[in-house]
Amino acid sequence: VTIILYHRTAFDANGQPPDSYYHPRGMLNVMEHFKTKYGDPLIYVTENGIRTVRGDIPFTEAFHDYEREKRVNVKGYFAWALGDNYEFCNGFTVTFGLSYVDFNNVTADRDLKASGLWYQSFLRDTTKNQDLLRSSLSFKNRDRKSLA
C-alpha cells in the first residue's frame, strides 16, 4: 500500500517549492485502519520522510510520533535518506536525511538530527531481541585505508 501524506505542490516566485506539506497523523490513521480491518498485521514503513529547508522536526514531535506508532505493530521503518543529499530539482537546498551533511566539507563527521535520534531509538527498541552488532554501526569517519 502506498500512502502519500501531502496534498499539493506549489511554487514560489523563484520556481522553488515551499516547505513540504505533511500530515503525520494521517499515517497513523491508515496504520490503525489496517490494525482494525486486518487483525493487527506487521507493518513496514518504507521511504518515509519530509524535506526540510529550515532544519529538522522538533524532537518532541518525533517523540510523539514514536509514542503514537507504539499502538500499531510497526516491525520495520525505512527512512527516506540516511544523510542529506542532492535533490535534482533543488540541489543541496533541501534536506531529507537523518543526519546533517556539511556540503562544504563532505568528509566531516555527520551529526544526527532529532529525526535521526528518533530513528536510533526506534531501532534500539524494536531490535532488542535480534542478533545485531550495533557497536559496528557508526556515523564517525573511519580510516579509509582500513576500509580498502
UniProtKB/TrEMBL annotation:
<dbReference type="GO" id="GO:0008422">
    <property type="term" value="F:beta-glucosidase activity"/>
</dbReference>
<dbReference type="InterPro" id="IPR001360">
    <property type="entry name" value="Glyco_hydro_1"/>
</dbReference>
<comment type="similarity">
    <text>Belongs to the glycosyl hydrolase 1 family.</text>
</comment>
<keyword id="KW-0378">Hydrolase</keyword>
<dbReference type="GO" id="GO:0005975">
    <property type="term" value="P:carbohydrate metabolic process"/>
</dbReference>
<protein>
    <submittedName>
        <fullName>Glycoside hydrolase superfamily</fullName>
    </submittedName>
</protein>
<dbReference type="Pfam" id="PF00232">
    <property type="entry name" value="Glyco_hydro_1"/>
</dbReference>
